[in-house]
Amino acid sequence: MTTDESGSRARTRQAILQAAIEVLGHNQAASLGEIATAAQVGRTTLHRYFAERSDLLAAVAAEGARRLNEATGRARLADGTGAEALLRLCAEYFDLGDLLSLVFAEPALVEDPVWGTEVCDDDFYAMIARGHADGSIDPALPAPWLQSVLWSQLYGGWSYLASHEVSRHEALGLVIRTVAGAVAPRG
Description:
The chain is mainly α and about 190 residues long.
């Protein structure tokens, strides 16, 4: 196999994964044919990469874990106050709307072993502990609760964006304002 073939195969595989994330994020019952159409490949090509639906879903789970980890890295959780890091994380995760909407709709994806080894809460918990210590996050709010708040606000933001005529910037601004208000220490 030449480098060009490897690059072409990688691009085709990535196009199929992206199409699966987008299509299944909007309709979990979508057929493999619908995913192939969205990826602009034939169904035979899709089956060459992913013989079964379960193979495709396992690859989507791995891709999801990879993207989530990359977004977490870009958020620089160890920099600044805990609240500043949380808001950066919120902004980075907001851009994963299709992927994370799919994860919410298909909870079996996060049961994939790759999520247990690739997606870790330790950095999130350390960021919240730092926020408690530096006074930027209300110490009465435990990390698991704040993680739920983050996910619920992101979901609310994606839903609002999809059902109202607002820009991505406006929806993200609402999410960040809500999360910032929710975590702020009380007087």
